[in-house]
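Reopening this one. Same input as before:
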Amino acid sequence: MYAALWRMLPGPLWLRILLAIIIVAAVLTALVLWLFPWVSTFIEAPEVTVE
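Same output, byte for byte:
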């Protein structure tokens, strides 16, 4: 799977590495900004008290 994605990236090695880093950063940003907050609406946080 990763080899197929790697072969799809255009350009020389340095450009492929740069594009891979940008793609990973974009996916992580999307997860943090949209997916994780959406999922957290379905998960009830436990009420913790410290005495």
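So the earlier flakiness isn't reproducible anymore. For the record, The CA atoms of residues 15 and 21 lie 10 Å apart.
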